[in-house]
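Course assignment 3, question 2. Fill in each field.
Student: A.L.
Task: Predict the tertiary structure for the chain below.
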Amino acid sequence: MKCVVGIMACGYVGAEGVLPQKELFSLESYIKSTQIEQEGWLIASLGEEGSNALKDLTKERKPYRKLDRSVLMAILTARMVKSQYPVKSGTVGINIGSSRGATKTFEHLHQEFLEADKTTTSAFTSPTTTLGNISSWVMDDLGWSGPVLSHSITCSTAIQGLANGMAWLKAGMADYFLAGGSEAPLTSFTLHQMKALGIYAEESTDGYPCQPLNMEEAQPHGMVLGAGSASFLLQNFEVEQMGKSNPMAVVESVGLGNEPLEGFTGISDAGTCFQRSMHMALKSQLSEAPVDMILVHAPGTNQGDQAELNAIEAIFGNQTPYLYSTKWKQGHTFGASAALGLYLALQCLKDQKIPEFPYGLSFKNHPPASVRKIMINAAGFGGNAGSIVVSLPDMFR
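Answer field:
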């Protein structure tokens, strides 16, 4: 019998808030000028609702006061999943990834090490900065049992976590799988790394310092960082059980691609890694319906945005779907960006709403009358890319 992987529940915290809905479709940008270590930076930090939720979380257990913000956000979104879909039995795998990991905690503890003349460091340094502590603490908090994985593959992290979850489920090695990404990169050190690359945005007069897919030659825009986390519970079941299982969406396929490195950061002008990931995802789709919308990676850098556009044109030709990027609104959340995009995709499918840019584009980009199938793209340093296709469950009933 034909089986599909469904998304049964989701959790989200980001600049727009906790489990936002209408905020995702407004024309308001959450990118603000904020002081970080006596310097002004354009960032999209967690809103008051999300920040307060994390503060409350640290009051519950003493160890939580030592955990990095990226870990706390992952715990928070995982709890949302559990409240929506309580798993009463079975093996549950977890793969929550992050590109930068516990960077703020690591930087703080390393600074303490330097101030101690490099002679001593906190006993909490290793256990709170290892990448595996994200999924480990999530599993501990939920009280579930199963395989626990963490990884980093730069900005493709969340998509590869979802791909891992699908593989474990289809192999019969888990009954459920919690996958997603979490990122808290808003530190002076990380921001200066992006500035050193010459791609970070500065203040603009139009109110939108980050404008993905705006390919005007003289645009004074660039990338802006944000923070956020999203988690999703996956389950594999037979198509005949669709009505009983009632998933939020079906994960039709995942595609992964890479390309030869031409440098430490960039991708080729043709966006070869994007072409390969999209081709793989489209080739393994479960339905023949066309993709209605692509939530592109497009961080707002001219070279990166253009490479992805070139790749999309190479794959879709004159049948290019509607394109949209969230990064003008919520910033670039590195390894969590595709997870935040997937959350938006679920809201689009559920409410049949189409998000729009608050600024004009240099090419035709017509919203579809309805949306049944969405592709989400991500790519990162190292010439790797990922694409995931999700669709309405009704297409399989």
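Instructor remarks: The chain has twelve helices and 14 strands. The longest helix spans residues 69-84.
Grade: pending
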